[in-house]
Amino acid sequence: MANVLLSAKNIKIRFGGVIAADGIDLDVLEGENLAIIGPNGAGKTTFLNISTGYLRPQAGTVTFLGHDITAQLPRTITRLGIARAFQIPQLFLDQTVMENMLIAAASLRGRPSGFQALSLMPEVPEMKRLLDLVGVKSYAERTARELPEGQRKLVDIALALALKPKLLLMDEPTSGVASSEKLTIMDILTTALAKEKVTSVFVEHDMDMVERYANRVAVWNVGKIQMVGTPAEVLADPKVREQVIGI
Ligand SMILES: Nc1ncnc2c1ncn2[C@@H]1O[C@H](COP(=O)(O)OP(=O)(O)OP(=O)(O)O)[C@@H](O)[C@H]1O
Q1: What number is the ipTM of this complex?
Q2: What is the pTM of this model?
Q3: Which residues of the chain form beta strands (DSSP E)?
Q4: For 15-68, how does the pLDDT look when each residue is reduced to its tens digit (9 = 90+)?
Q5: Is 179 near ligand 1, meaning CB less than 6 Å away?
Q6: Which of 12, 45, 169 gets mutated to test ligand 1 (max ligand atoms within 8 A of its CB)?
Q7: 46 lines ligand 1 (CB under 6 A)
Q8: CATH number of the domain to which 34 belongs
Q9: Contacts of 158 (CB under 8 A, 6+ apart)
Q10: pLDDT tens, position by position, 179-216
């Protein structure tokens, strides 16, 4: 059986009258691509925020490789091996793609050891390798602002990989990308994750993406997990079809 990488137990959080997590229990298994689906406001992003230390739950615990990360700072959690990619890529738009990568690599080292030109950092070859892995090496010396949307998403993934994660959490990895490009981006992304041995959890509204790229699916509904199963099991479930997918 696969190892449990991240384990959430009885997570609860409410914002005023809104219950965003109401006893969430979920294990993320090493090597899987787990999709999180559910209606707007169900609490999907809240779960990612709690798992990365951006929100502290009012009850429950999250453990990652045996460490209790419930009350840890985001940067501590990143160093333990959880990275995050966002719906809107978090890039320094006026820096080049390579500079963005090197800034991410420098953040992993902790305290900077005095001034050092980014271009002289020992991580340059590794950052080139990661840009090549996601097919954007030719953009290395262009500013992030110049990148088309799809390439920005890929650079955001390379940035997350620069943090050497064991687990990557993603909020709608292909949102805002033309539908003709979605499959290409997801193919590149899942191939890169498999090659780097990175487990992933991704929030997704597009059921085609879920069917193609998830090994397992967790269905969120009003702060609770309604069902966990394979894409085929989940997408065939009448309640899920009616309440989540809307058919
Ligand atoms: N920091 C916050 N302060 C107040 N309310 C919040 C906060 N974060 C989330 N909420 C509320 O909690 C509920 C769950 O939000 P969340 O963003 O987790 O849902 P979601 O399932 O990711 O939705 P979507 O698919 O629309 O992104 C929503 O009603 C949201 O407005």
Answers
A1: 0.96
A2: 0.93
A3: 4-15, 18-29, 33-37, 59-64, 67-68, 82-85, 167-171, 199-203, 216-221, 224-229
A4: 999 999 999 999 999 999 999 999 999 999 999 999 999 999 999 999 999 999
A5: no
A6: 45
A7: yes
A8: 3.40.50.300
A9: 101, 127, 130, 131, 133, 134, 136
A10: 889 999 999 999 999 999 999 999 999 999 999 999 99
For the chain, how many structural domains are there in total?
Answer: 1
120 with 77: CB under 8 angstroms?
Answer: no
Q: Which amino acid is at 197?
A: K
Instruction: Give the range of the structural domain holding residue 136, as residue numbers without chain letter.
Output: 4-245
HSE-up of 56 (CA within 13 Å, CB side)? 5
Helices 97-109 + 124-133 axis angle, to 10: 120
Strand locations in 128-198 (E): 167-171
What pLDDT does 91 receive?
85
